[in-house]
Design goal:
Among the domains are: 91 residues, Serine Threonine Protein Phosphatase 5, Tetratricopeptide repeat; 127 residues, no CATH class. The protein has 15 helices and 6 strands. It is of the alpha+beta class and 329 residues long. A 6-stranded mixed sheet has the order 2-1-3-4-5-6, with helices on one face. The chain is 57% helix and 9% strand. It is globular and about 60 Å long.
């Protein structure tokens, strides 16, 4: 609970105080550390398991492979996977293959990741293919991305993710005709994109925001804070990364869209609603974009705040201009 709520230090305190530990508690702390980008700590706890008399389970290996994926530790990930299969004699589950595809894809080894999927002894699911599709998008491999998206459309024809990813890849090339075709296909099939949203809890109340949200009772104050943040970021030399806005509009409109991303709105609300130096904890339902990531690093430095963001994949701890992910996510 503590690790999933962003308090990994409290999770560690609870774990260290346990009078007795079993494989479940070890798995919980290893997975929690991995989710928070504490990769060296996750590896350290994994090494302590067997000397403590606890045999790693298949779930343990999901946690440790996830840790390797978050840090780009390809060789170590391969080693753990081979050890699990050939030394511990555990049968890999679909989740283990998914972790390996994610690890290889993030590191740019797209062909190896695709080959792994095609040679799996079990039928790959949509989650495994999505890991490869996300990597194609991140690495800018449009040809493979289109191929993978088509596979996903057959596997899960009413899941918006593959259509949105394909549309975004076309948009990154400026191929607006192809973008229009994908969006028309979505409309014909009544497939709707999941809206991006961020939430922040203050005094037991959850405040939710979407992009360009003006529905909050304190919208005017939030807007003023966003303007101040934008000015401060400019003084720090930050320039909005408009390549993240995959819409057919001019540069000024793109900057405006970035300005009102939901995680920035939630951050602005947190800054005006809490005392100085109070940590801000934000949850986002999608992957944080690169512009918001670079902005939040600077915001943490400018306003001297720790900002903890849980996106769809992991936690980011922003503090003093740095992020716990070391810009690898």
């Amino acid at each position: 609970m503590y690790s999933k709520c962003g308090s990994i230090e409290k999770a560690l305190l609870v774990f260290e105080k346990l009078p007795k530990r079993n494989v479940i508690t070890w798995n919980a702390i290893i997975s929690g550390l991995a989710m928070h980008g504490r990769v060296e700590d996750a590896l350290d706890y994994f090494k302590k398991m067997e000397p403590a008399g606890v045999v790693p389970s298949d779930v343990t290996y999901i946690g440790i492979l996830s840790a390797c994926s978050h840090a780009g530790l390809v060789e170590q990930g391969r080693s753990f996977f081979n050890r699990m299969v050939n030394v511990i004699s555990l049968e890999p589950r679909i989740e283990h293959y998914g972790c390996m595809v994610d690890l290889l894809g993030r590191a740019g080894l797209l062909e190896e990741a695709e080959e792994l999927i095609l040679n799996m002894p079990i039928q790959p699911d949509d989650v495994t293919w999505k890991a490869l599709l996300g990597a194609c998008k991140k690495q800018g491999n449009i040809d493979m991305g289109k191929r993978v998206a088509e596979v996903l459309m057959d596997l899960a024809p009413h899941d918006s993710g593959s259509y949105v990813a394909l549309s975004n890849m076309y948009a990154s090339l400026g191929n607006w005709e192809a973008v229009a075709k994908v969006r028309l296909q979505m409309k014909d099939m009544d497939i709707r994109k999941d809206p991006g949203g961020s939430s922040i809890e203050l005094d037991g109340v959850i405040h939710e925001f979407v992009v360009e949200d003006e529905s909050h009772p304190r919208a005017r104050e939030i807007h003023s804070m966003l303007e101040e943040i934008s000015n401060q970021l400019s003084l720090e030399g930050h320039r909005p990364d408009t390549t993240q806005v995959l819409l057919n509009m001019d540069e000024e409109e793109k900057q405006s869209v970035l300005h009102y991303h939901s995680e920035k709105i939630a951050t602005a609300f947190g800054l005006i609603s809490t005392a100085p130096q109070t940590p801000l904890r934000i949850v986002k339902n999608l992957r944080i974009c690169e512009d918001c990531h670079s902005s939040l690093k600077l915001i943490s430095k400018i306003y001297e705040r720790m900002i903890i963001v849980r996106d769809r994949k992991r936690f980011h701890h922003f503090e003093q201009g740095l992020c716990s992910c070391m810009d690898y996510w």
